[in-house]
What does this fold into?
Amino acid sequence: ASGAIKSITVEAVTSVAPEHAADTKFFQEYTDAHAGSALKSWLVFEVVGVLIGAFISGLVSDRLNFTLEHGPKIKSGVRIFGAMTGGLLFGFGAQLGRGCTSGAALSGMAV
It folds into this structure.
């Protein structure tokens, strides 16, 4: 999933600030490796497919509900902030170590 986020970020920066993307080595290397559009990466299609499939599965099985689970002493805003912050840090750490968030989970990093 972190590769899909990277592809979406590269495409967004290339669209919004093409001069910056052209002058930055990271963006140049990424766009050269993904001819045409970074959004054509298989990782982007995989993430979109998983999201659509999960939505359809929940809809068909009548289990689609939008709830936010949290403890009795934690407010919804704090729960969302904590989840977003943790996810961003985990994704950043995976990219920094040239790794994968799935690999980190499978190798027992959470333990």
